[in-house]
Amino acid sequence: MVVEEYIEFVSERAIRVKGTRIGIETIVRDYQMGATPDEVILRYPTLSLLQVYAVLTYYLANQPMVEAYLERVRQSQEGAWQEQQQRPSEFVRSLRARLEQQRRLLSQSQAHMMAP
């Protein structure tokens, strides 16, 4: 098997299933959580069983390197999440404001229902 037929090495933080936007971390994470290859393709129907087996073969044959890659991806995702929490977009701020307003309305409604 030629790995490059099934896996695309985009960058240090992006290794994808060739022809898709699915990172190998998605398949490996599911596998580590106990999913079988058949279960993975049920979750991601754009993947073929052959693609899933190719990723798992690559992972098992290069486990230390792939584990280091997974840690880089995790750190990158954590950093992006922290950044988003500290500087939310206008859309997220708007959603938070609407959520808070709905919570206040619900709380007021419940208080009126409890009053004798």
Question: Can you summarize this structure?
Answer:
By secondary structure, the protein is mainly alpha-helical. Helices cover 67% and strands 8% of the residues.
Can you tell me about this structure?
The chain is mainly α and 116 residues long. The protein is 67% helix and 8% strand. The chain has helices spanning 24-32, 37-43, 49-61, 63-86, 90-114; strands at 7-11, 14-17. A two-stranded antiparallel sheet has the order 1-2. A hairpin with a 2-residue loop joins strand 1 and strand 2 (14-17). Helix 3 (49-61) crosses helix 4. The model has no long low-confidence stretch (mean pLDDT 91).
* Cα shape: elongated
DSSP strand count: 2
Terminus-to-terminus distance: 74 Å
Please tell me the overall pLDDT: 91
The major pleated sheet works out as:
2 strands, antiparallel
Query: What are the segments in which pLDDT stays under 50 over at least 5 consecutive residues?
Result: none
Instruction: Give the amount of beta strand, in percent.
Output: 5-15%
Topology pattern, helix = H, strand = E = EEHHHHH
Radius of gyration: 21 Å
Helical segment count: 5
Q: Summarize the amount of helix as a percent range.
A: 55-70%
Strand order of the largest sheet: 1-2
Structural class: mainly alpha
Please specify the SSE layout and strand pairing.
Blueprint: E1 7-11, E2 14-17, H1 24-32, H2 37-43, H3 49-61, H4 63-86, H5 90-114
Antiparallel strand pairs: 1-2
Helix pairs in contact: 1-3, 3-4
